């Protein structure tokens, strides 16, 4: 291998949650300022056809850290008995692995074991609904000078009173912790290779920022900050938000985006100071986007993955490779495959990714013919690089459907403690996941059963097909055309290749 093709020794992965591709300057956005991400893109490979896989937060991290799509089998959960994160074989190989995160879901039921195979981890407290403080700061300093609505974050309203300055907010504090680790500990043991994984929850809501970021893009707003976006469709049409409120919520996302971009710049400066660019791959990615008024949608409600949600940014600095763009279809499980390829480890469980290294090094211009994406019990999407087909269930019962898991958990909804995953019952049976000899509990749901949270309200016969290459705004639904039949065949092929449960094909009416 030539010197220009020498593999990096280290990797830094920075996951910015809910990072909207269409709002980044390097992807053509002009609404908000992202100078540091744009500067990074100028020294990186920009992937233009990158899409989500399993959603939402923890399923997406399962894609990236474990490399296996899970939304066809379960809704949300920790690493299962028959699989392991990429950090397990890296630990055995002597690679130092470090997790720095302010993401609360990583440290609660349903995400509690993603961090345990890292050599070390640093959890920055206080983001979203992290139950960090039980009372407001009695000295009443800090962000209460910027009143904000209470919204659905009943724990956050206590936490935010303890942030005395910008550097105390979880996002800035997480990025500073990454800088500190890179400055002091990275490669400290005789140049031992390392993987630093920064799971940064910004710009995810709450869209709460201090000065000078607060109201940066809405300077005329005088009321308390609206930091909690609704999760709704037909938002303006139904009066959930007024046009003025919608503009303010969107502007607050922009404030948080620009703030975390500023602190991302400090990580870049640290990589400069340590002269790490020449032997370190740097990957900037996200789990999904976030609707902020596109199609009159806000948040992440139950709709197909339109482009703002499913078409996501991916930027990779690869030493020895000039800045360029890649048009090949890629998805989040491919990040796991790339890390395995980089560090020369082989997964010991069934995985679904393809390494991005051939695309980065120019030895190939394509690594996959299709990609699938979805949320458990909702639409299953298949993409071929030009078209996107979203197929939902064909019956109101959303059946047949089973949950496959030995770790019976899902995302806690603190404000709705009664909304829990139904427990397995006498209908449960032992089955086997593809590629595994470890028995798994399979709970088939029956008519009338309470389905897991993510399936609630799913409508029947809501399908859509878009030519996203020529119709990126998804204005023309191409159902009932020969193209739909071709995409149904592609979806059937993809599900059979993945060895997805037969019931998924039956649920979608394509068995």
Short description:
The chain has 511 residues and is an alpha/beta fold. Strand 14 and strand 15 form a beta hairpin. The chain has a domain at 371-507.
Would you write up a description of this structure?
This protein is α/β, with parallel strands linked by helices. Helix content is 23%, strand content 16%. Strand 14 (371-375) and strand 15 form a beta hairpin. The N and C termini lie far apart (47 Å).
How many helices in DSSP terms? 11
Mean pLDDT: 94
Count every beta strand, where a strand is a DSSP E run of 2 or more residues: 20
Assign an overall shape: globular
Topology:
Blueprint: E1 10-16, H1 35-41, E2 45-47, E3 50-51, E4 54-55, H2 57-66, H3 87-93, E5 96-101, E6 120-123, H4 156-159, H5 170-184, E7 194-200, H6 243-273, E8 280-285, E9 291-292, E10 298-299, H7 307-310, E11 314-317, E12 324-326, E13 330-331, H8 333-343, H9 357-361, E14 371-375, E15 380-383, E16 387-391, E17 402-404, E18 429-432, E19 439-444, E20 464-467, H10 482-497, H11 502-507
Parallel strand pairs: 1-7, 1-8, 2-12, 3-13, 4-14, 5-6, 5-7
Antiparallel strand pairs: 2-11, 8-11, 9-10, 14-15, 15-16, 16-20, 17-19, 18-19
Index terms:
single chain, 511 residues, alpha/beta, 8-stranded mixed β-sheet, 5-stranded mixed β-sheet
